[in-house]
Amino acid sequence: MKSDAIVIGAELDGLIAAMRLAENGHSVQVLSNGMSSLNYAPDGIQVLGHIANGIVISDPFDAISSLDSSHPYRILGADQLKQALEWYVDVRKRLGLPVVVDSNNQQAISAAGLPLPVYATTEHQATFDKVHGKITAIIRFAGHRDSPGELLANGLARQSIQSVIVEFDSPGSVVENAALAKTFDTMDALEHYFECLRKEIPEQIQAVVFPAVMGLKNHQSVLSTAERVLGLPCFEIPTLPLSVPGMRLEQGFRKNLKEAGVVLQTGVYPTACSIGVDDRINVTDESGRNHQASVVVLSSGGVLMGGLDVDSRGRVQETAFELDVYQTAPLTANGPNEVLDALHNTGVDTDYALRPKMNSTGYFKNLFVTGHTLAHWNPSKEGSANGVCIATGWAAAGNALMYLEERNAA
Amino acid sequence: MPGCENAKRRFGPTPFKKNDPLAVVIGGGATGCGVARDLILRGFKVTLVEHDDLGSGTSSRFHGMLQSGARYAVTDTGFAAECMRERLNIANLAPQAVETCGGLFISLPDDPPEFADQFVSGCQNARIPIEEIDPAQVMSEEPEISRQVLRAFSVPDATVQSWRLVNLLADDVLARGGEILTRHRAIGIDVSTGRVRAVVVEGKGGKRHLPADIVVNAAGPWSAQVADLAGEKTNLELGKGSILVFSHRMVAKAINRCRPPTSHDIIVPTGTISLFGTTSEVVNDPSTTQVRPEEIQELLDNAEILLPNARSYRAFRAWAGVRPLYKPDNWPSDKPLSRRHSIVNHGDRGIDGFFTICGGSLTTHRSMAEDIGDQICTSLGLEVPCTTTTTPLSSGMKPLWRPAQNFHRIEHDKQFLAPVCECESVTHQDITHQIENCSIRCLHDLRRRLRIGFGPCQGTFCANRVAAMILRNDSQYDAVEDLEAFWCERLKGSKHTAWGQQARQILLSDIVYRETLGLRLDDSSALSGNSHEE
Hints:
The complex is a heterodimer.
Chain A: E1 2-8, H1 12-23, E2 28-31, E3 50-51, E4 55-56, H2 60-63, H3 72-94, E5 99-109, E6 115-122, H4 128-131, E7 136-141, H5 149-158, E8 163-168, H6 177-185, H7 190-200, E9 207-211, H8 219-230, E10 234-237, H9 244-259, E11 263-265, E12 270-275, E13 281-285, E14 290-298, E15 308-310, E16 316-318, H10 336-345, E17 367-369, H11 379-382, H12 385-409
Parallel strand pairs in A: 1-2, 1-14, 2-11, 7-8, 7-9, 9-10, 14-17
Antiparallel strand pairs in A: 3-4, 5-6, 12-13, 13-14, 15-16
Helix pairs in contact in A: 1-9, 1-12, 3-12, 7-8
Chain B: E1 9-10, E2 22-26, H1 30-41, E3 45-49, E4 65-66, H2 77-93, E5 98-99, E6 103-107, H3 115-125, E7 131-133, H4 135-141, E8 151-155, E9 158-160, H5 162-175, E10 179-181, E11 185-192, E12 195-203, E13 206-211, E14 214-217, H6 223-228, E15 236-246, E16 254-257, E17 266-270, E18 273-277, E19 281-283, H7 293-306, E20 315-326, E21 342-345, E22 354-358, H8 365-380, H9 405-413, E23 419-421, E24 426-427, H10 428-437, H11 443-450, H12 462-473, H13 479-494, H14 500-516, H15 523-527
Parallel strand pairs in B: 2-3, 2-14, 3-10, 6-16, 14-22
Antiparallel strand pairs in B: 1-10, 4-9, 5-9, 6-8, 7-8, 11-12, 12-13, 15-18, 15-19, 15-20, 16-17, 17-18, 21-22, 23-24
């Protein structure tokens, strides 16, 4: 199949690049293995929460200058990051999944009741500010393993937030994140369910937190119904993977991209790529099919999603184009921190326009690398998972647009 | 160790009479627990002291074999015969800790051809049942092994769940009125007028003075340090062995190369995993459990000879144990040390009542205990026979352990969401029992008793669930600190195998611990504790 652009991988950065390219009138195909780390991601937008030595960041843009000069944020600069975020916040509105941006990082509440610095939050995402000073009911669905209520209560107590665990019947027989969310989506007796719950909630309660499984498509109306019936503000706390808020976002993107005419192919594992006549890039997949485009955005993810692979001798390879990879040796790491750094920080080096090296002398003209496939950043340590994906996905699309424009002009 | 103050268990009241001899056993591995059980059955009042958790040293840091002795049939026939007897004794005594998978010895082109015949006669001399099998049959039954098997022999090797065995022995000691002090370190041995008088121990609650007529040093690789408390020396050579853990049962039986026992020549299926080992190097520090990266490559290179696809397997982690072997004075440096145990009666050197036992193996822990029990009784002029083979464990006889037995239970009850640890099929009920009835309130100790966190996800999904369960019972429990320590410890072992699927697993654990639970991995928690067991 031929198109103007190919995006490899359905990570957040790839979906963003695809959307921006399609918005500008280009034909786009997204080739992915069907997995996305969005399925693991908690709600909200994490841009930069921590820098070295665990220092907590309140203004992410201010702190960028203290990152290493090879970090993707430093390559793009704070201005591009800001523009990308502005565009993305608007996209979230269009996807029906709006976020609120505060002047500084908010502290979202983690599954264990600990603070997670976050740049933008969704309406019902629990933060310490939202439950500050409120006696909080923690709802636990009977038999639900992935919302550790006591850990949450323990964490809230550390921040002087009083809480009570309310164990309540699960709305469905399969007590698992995605199944619960789907049950809430289609529940007829929603009001009755929350009325029964209201009887279990003690008098003194001032806020309610649910595990983040309150619907996959209709969570906003499920949660407003809960607020109306219970007469209390209701928020969601992240669960262990799979993450329902991440799935909402992935589904939102897929729906929107399809409507924009983007071809989403899953179950595709690129095995070889070559530059053909006229600088067009050919991608061959595992089943021997050919895909051709004028530009390619490589958003195949890092080691976690299989865009990079570590072998038993500790060598890292980029799996689609066999691009040069920056790496330190994961197998000779001294401690837990070092091995995590090695696995996160490995990836592809690029120039200022996110183009990787083609050979020892030059850079690709029409291949752009984004997100976790890039080297020199550590989402878990920095609390920067979404921010880097948004900035690089947006910027890669921008650079690809420029290339396509010049090409058409020529 | 955080959250473990309650690990100290004391069952009373003691049934002892005032004049029963008092014995203090130092060391809570298989040897120490075996000795404690032997002595309590002979009428001693026994206190066992362990500086960490039960079975946290060499007893859990080996390849997990309950040896038929075939491995030593040529080089150490006497020890091989002892292993065979004890292999049967342990399977009779504690079948719930034993899996009778059977063992194979295979000759590959690199192995000395003349060894196979020596091996057969060695096994016959040691009374180990042995049968030669058609190599074609072996290669069809074991599809992962080399296609170049020249000869193959079947022997009755088995595997043992070492923590289960050690805890069964300890529970029996407790049930018979003994005392077990875990996380108590022996810091002094009082000797006066040529006799031991007491052992001074220190735990979180402070120091204790334990009066003793008999003190047994069963501290394994730490024996020299314990002997030193009484100003004594031991002749120990410490051998570190590293083991690589593969994710599946790659083989049906424990498979050895048919050659004189040496390094990296054995793969053992145990639980849901396989262990390949071991490297071997002499060390000075008994706490040396660091695996060097070169050892991993050495293990993989050798594993490939036995299992040609070894590098494509998923490996979970690697760890090392320190094996204490007795080295007599003036032993020639080129002669291999015997695996047989050795007992030192320090009475011969002027300290009556003080004994050190070292060497041996987990398989022979019971006969070792019998031997030292006999010597102790002789020294006191007592004639009390050993009854450890004829007295059943107080926990009673249960069926032989078999892989995935929990899963059969879950499937039978149709409780598919019941497992708290999916990898090892550990249920809510199992964990609640340990937390509520045994007061085990730290993730490491639950891991050793229940295997939580041993499977593919290495505690990524179960640890937070279990921490929440502990909090339900103990509001003082520091869940955040314990989770951080647990994750760090799991990462310490799995960093050695950060390739392929396991590299992905490590990053998924990072998403769970740091991005979802909000824990931080600061350098202090990364550096605390040095254990990385199975």
